């Protein structure tokens, strides 16, 4: 048989591979962002009640109306963004599903799309799968700043879009207003679409503030904003997200999402209506909890000689793993797993640049006792 060549260079990600390797030795998985924390009771009850009511059949491709209204209310309360829930919001099969549908709907094969490095691997691989060309612009630690000249230099005649992930996976970078305004100005000047992944919007530290790109002057009309519930409510396996976009873009994306997924899981959509009804105290407690966990992991990495780049948002830490003594980040991560039973993800999962060989990503979306045990193990280095 002759098989298609489009995906022959893609393999299961190192994130998945390290999770399997960790399970095989019974290690502590600080690699994949599984977020194995308890599901908030209102969210769990909402799903159970929907199943008991037999709310399990297909929904409209854009999702159930109560959830779209709840998301619209949340966006207006939190950010002053007014979106029509009937025309400008789409419930998606995870934020990654929303990203895939948006790229399929809005770009053509051969188009170039700018992505900041380090990047979320699913963003880059989705672009490649669709025949698009990622153009990488580096951000550099410790603040993960980017050079405006390098960003502008990456824009060419085939550039159609730019991807912003804030707070960022894997670096934890939170884009400032000035940076977002720069992105907006370049997008206007070069007629680019912007796709923002904001799924970690509620996980912020040290006074960092999440500012949606769509709130910046001139940005809303050309921005698709991705959000989700997986990280906020610790239900990563439920695969439920949403996006907001101007009506012409949302209409196209709805068609693509219907083609790819038909609709997001029905009972779980009803559960998220209950989730979004929870008050501000839930989000404040979550941020405090993650701040404590960040401190445990970063302190442990620092003591182990694996210098961490302390994140401003999200729940990952990039750390320098050269002390482990291997030429590649993959070898260093496997050595860590073998020596102390702690799994991480090679930095090359997030970099084309060779600097990725010096880094690994660790996740602190774990129970505190698990993180303390991981800290004890890392101390053995």
Spell out the blueprint of helices and strands:
Blueprint: H1 14-25, E1 28-29, H2 41-52, H3 65-79, E2 89-92, H4 94-106, E3 112-117, H5 121-129, E4 133-140, E5 145-146, H6 148-153, E6 159-165, H7 177-190, E7 193-197, E8 223-228, E9 241-244, H8 247-261, H9 266-276, H10 280-303, E10 308-309, E11 316-320, H11 329-340, E12 342-343, E13 345-346, E14 359-363, H12 368-379
Parallel strand pairs: 1-12, 3-4, 3-6, 6-7, 7-8
Antiparallel strand pairs: 2-9, 4-5, 8-9, 10-11, 11-14, 13-14
Helix pairs in contact: 1-11, 2-9, 3-9, 4-5, 4-8, 10-12
Can you walk through the features of this model?
This protein is 41% helix and 16% strand. By secondary structure, the chain is an alpha/beta fold. The strands form three sheets. The protein has an eight-stranded mixed sheet, with helices on both faces. The chain has a four-stranded antiparallel sheet with strand order 10-11-14-13. Helix 1 packs parallel to helix 11 and helix 10 (280-303) runs parallel beside helix 12.
Give me the strand/helix succession.
HEHHEHEHEEHEHEEEHHHEEHEEEH
What is the overall silhouette? Answer: globular
* Low-confidence blocks of residues: none
The total strand number stands at: 14
Strand content: 15-25%
Which whole number gives the mean pLDDT? Answer: 95
- Report strand order across the widest sheet: 2-9-8-7-6-3-4-5
End-to-end Cα distance, whole Å, is: 49 Å
For the largest beta-sheet, the strand count, sense and barrel status come to: 8 strands, mixed
Percent helix: 40-55%
Backbone structural class: alpha/beta
If you compute it from the alpha carbons, what radius of gyration comes out, rounded to the nearest whole angstrom? 20 Å
User: In DSSP terms, counting alpha (H) and pi (I) runs of 4 or more, how many helices?
Assistant: 12
